Amino acid sequence: MPGIRLLRPVPAAPLIALGALLALAGCGSGAPGGTNWGWYVVSPWTAGGRSNLMFLLGGLWDTILLSATAMAISVLVGVLVALPGVGRNRWGRRFNLAYVEVFRAIPILVLILWVYYGLPVVAGIAINVFWAGVLALALSDSAFEAEIFRAGIQAIPKGQTEAAQSMGLNRLQVMRFVILPQAIRRILPPLANQFAYMLKMSALVSVIGMQELTRRANELVVTEYRPLEIYTVLVLEYLALILLVSQAVRWLERRMSRSGDY
Fold first, then answer.
1. At a CB cut-off of 8 Å and minimum separation 6, what does 94 contact?
2. Mean pLDDT along residues 164-183
3. Which residues in 66-98 are b (16+ Cβ under 10 Å) and which e?
4. What is the DSSP string of the chain?
5. pLDDT exceeds 70 at position 173
6. Sorting pLDDT into bands at 50, 70 and 90, what band is 28?
7. Could you tell me the residue ranges of all domains in the chain?
């Protein structure tokens, strides 16, 4: 009807998670002989709970910064690795294959530990926990980014290349001005999904002391001895981040679908 705006349905997952948390929070000290809940450690209605919540949320910025920096580097490296894979040079294709297979085969946790503890010994350089985490995540993810870019480039019809070359453009100009812009539009949703994956994998950097969400939760558990309550808040923090990224990906897909670019 004119003048009436329909409200969009609210995603069910956040409401379910919030309801579960409130239900658990409603459990006090429990019945005699029952479970002794300790939600006061993360309750916003107590001074100690607010302090603990602020401590946990303090790792949010480090998690986002770590993931965004690693993602930016992995995209750049992924492009550089993907280009030889779609070229005519046999050695370039072999390099692409070797790089992708090697870094896809190494577990991220193992790579984080090696970069932080092994790279300074091998290369003789000092590296802090932030850049060790960024480098390890970027190297691991760049192999997947390379495959995404390679698939996007190969999805562009060959007629586009032939038409550009007939206009006098060389191979570099064809790739820069014709192929890559179209490929990037096609692969934006997969790239956004990789960012959600990066956010989740950033939790592994906590093992080398990075003060992100998971590390702060682990430290709070040691002092408060309430793992269930604290890790529940940690789950909700990651859930909120990933849901926001997922909603952005869906919005991007709908927008590209309407514009005919995807």
1. none
2. 80
3. bbebbbebbbebbbebbbbbbeeeeeeeeebee
4. -TT--PPPPPPHHHHHHHHHHHHHHT--S-STTS----GGGG-TTSHHHHHHHHHHHTTHHHHHHHHHHHHHHHHHHHHHHHHHHTSS-HHHHHHHHHHHHHHHHS-HHHHHHIIIIIHHHHH-----HHHHHHHHHHHHHHHHHHHHHHHHHHTS-HHHHHHHHHTT--HHHHIIIIIHHHHHHHHHHHHHHHHHHHHHHGGGGGGGT--SHHHHHHHHHHHH--HHHHHHHHHHHHHHHHHHHHHHHHHHHHHHHHHT--
5. yes
6. very low
7. 70-207
pLDDT of residue 21: 54
Q: Is the pLDDT of residue 76 over 80?
A: yes
> Would you identify the CATH topology of the domain 70-207?
MetI-like fold (1.10.3720)
Alpha carbon dihedral 211, 216, 218, 221, in 10-degree steps, equals 160
**Average of per-residue pLDDT across 46-66:** 92
pLDDT at 4: 39
What pLDDT score does 38 carry?
81
